[in-house]
Structures are given as structure tokens and as C-alpha cells.
Amino acid sequence: MKLTIIGNGVMAQSLAMGLIKSYEVEMIGRDINKLKAIKEKMPQIEIKQLEDKEDINGKNIIFCVKPFALESVSVRLVGTANILISILAGTRLDYLRKQVKAKNYVRAMPNIAASVLQSMTTVTGDLESKDIAMKIFATIGQSVWVHTEYQLDIATAVAGSGPAFLALVAEALADGAVKAGLDRHLSTQLVQGLFVGTASLLKHSHPSFIKDSVMSPGGTTASGYSKLEECGVRNAMISAVNEAYNKACELAKK
Ligand SMILES: NC(=O)c1ccc[n+]([C@@H]2O[C@H](COP(=O)([O-])OP(=O)(O)OC[C@H]3O[C@@H](n4cnc5c(N)ncnc54)[C@H](OP(=O)(O)O)[C@@H]3O)[C@@H](O)[C@H]2O)c1
Fold it and tell me: Tens of pLDDT along 198-237?
């Protein structure tokens, strides 16, 4: 089966890096030089410059441009795609149906970890395409199907944006170690290992159990943890997810 990715940005490339392991992948973009540079990194993919009348008839499209570019790209698409999978944040299925002709429509929210086959992807849309879409995203990590776009927009805020939120935590933890006097390279290495180990624990344990297991009475963790609460880290995370969700809703109104 061949997948056609429209767009050649960060997400398009992350998806392609994972998908080329299981599918034929064609990438369509407006800048041939960027496409050529991508082909040098991923020789298996086909590249194609977006034409004024780009024939998408019968293709399985993964749409990866910015939400604001949807109209300017969709006016150039002719024919009826077999399936249109959009990863555009906050862009509703109803709107996609008006913009691009396809037999079935799906919205998916992968994250940047697709490039290392570890995306946490949320998917919704026409039930006829559920199996094919879930199969595609299973090749680049874990995926869950939700029944409403409301759920998908919340998933966008937590799992789509999440790598950036966790990257901030990772960077800050390393900065803390540097501030205490540890070399930067050691601090970074420790934090990398910390995230890998904690991710494994999270597969089997509730976060509060992990926290209670580490925090002994009057100990070092309890001291550090109370500082996190004092600084409002928990509330900052809750607010970050809610702000990102509000932004997705704002995009949907356009
Ligand atoms: N970044 C993430 O972690 C993430 C996660 C989940 C979903 N998403 C969604 O993925 C989509 C792409 O995000 P991204 O981070 O990959 O953005 P990006 O790196 O900026 O890539 C955007 C792509 O859109 C193309 N584009 C922009 N304006 C265009 C136009 N007028 N005509 C044709 N092509 C145009 C760009 O082409 P040029 O290279 O020629 O400028 C580029 O290929 C967004 O809708 C976003 O909501 C992103």
C-alpha cells in the first residue's frame, strides 16, 4: 500500500521516517529543494513537487501542512482520495470534507516520536476507515481510537504537544543538576536515563504509586517534591494542557 504525505515539515518527516519501514511513501511539497534534501536522508521515499492541479484520485493521503495553509493547498488538489488522514491541529472533519474530496476522512494526532516509532497517536473519523488508519499508526507507535473530535482536541493538547512539555521538564531537571555542580554532559545523560526508566515504570504503575515509592519520610525526595508543589508545577502542567486545548478549539472556529 502506498501513502502520500502532503507537506514536508517536521511532522511529515517524522511520520515518513516511521512509515517507510512498512509502506511505500510519496511526499508532496511545494519546495523541490527541501524535498531533495529529505530524499537524501530517506532514499526510499518518492518525492513530488506540488502541482497547480495535483491529482489525488484514489490516493491514501496524510495531510501534514499547517492549518492556515489548508485552503491554499486544497484548491490545488483534484480528484477523490481513497482516504484523507489529516493531522492538522484543531481542523474539524466537517471543514476537511468541504476542502478536499475523499471517500473517507480521518483525523489523527500523532507526535514527534513517530520518527523513532514511539508516537502516541489519537485517531477519530469515519468508522469505515478505522481499521486502515489504526493499522497505519500502529506502525509508528501506540494508537487509540476516540469517538469524538472533542476527545481528539484534548489528546492534541496532552500527547501532541506533550513532548514539548516533557522536554521542558527534562531540560529543567538537567539545569538543576548543573546548578548543584554536576557537569552538563553527565546531567543530560542522567536525565535521559531517568525518562527511559520512569516511562517503563509508568507502563505498569500509577504515577502516585511511583511517587510514594520514592518519597520516604523526611527524605530528600520529600524536600524536592514539596518545592515542586510550592512552585505550582502541578497547576502549571494542568494549565498548559488546558491552554493548548483552548488553542485547538480556537483553530476549529476559523
Ligand atoms: N509538530 C508537532 O509536534 C505536531 C504534532 C501533531 C500534529 N501536528 C500538525 O502537523 C501539521 C504540520 O506541523 P509541522 O510541525 O510539521 O509544521 P512545519 O514543520 O512548519 O511544516 C509545515 C509544512 O506545511 C507546508 N506549507 C506551509 N504553508 C504552505 C502553503 N501555503 N502551501 C504549501 N505548503 C505549505 C510547509 O512547506 P514549506 O516547507 O515549503 O514551508 C511544510 O511542509 C500542523 O497542522 C500541526 O498542527 C504537529
Answer: 999 999 999 999 999 999 999 999 999 999 999 999 999 9
Cross-strand pairs, 80: none
Cell of 140: 509508528
Residue 9 annotated as part of some ligand binding site: yes
Candidates 47, 51, 66: which one to mutate for ligand 1, based on the most atoms within 8 Å of Cβ?
66
- Model confidence band, residue 115 (pLDDT cutoffs 50, 70, 90): confident
Per-residue pLDDT reduced to its tens digit, 46-94: 999 999 999 999 999 999 999 999 999 999 999 999 999 999 999 999 9
CATH number for the domain formed by residue range(s) 2-149? 3.40.50.720
How far are the Cα atoms of 149, 186, 195, 203, 232 from residue 206, in angstroms, in the given order? 27, 29, 16, 8, 21
142 CA to centre of ligand 1 in angstroms: 22
Cβ of 29 less than 6 Å from ligand 1: yes
Per domain, the residue ranges of the chain are: 2-149, 162-251
- Assign a CATH topology to domain 162-251: ProC C-terminal domain-like fold (1.10.3730)
Asked if residue 125 belongs to a known ligand binding site, the reply is: no
pTM over 0.70: yes
Q: How many CA atoms lie within 13 A of 79 on its CB side?
A: 14
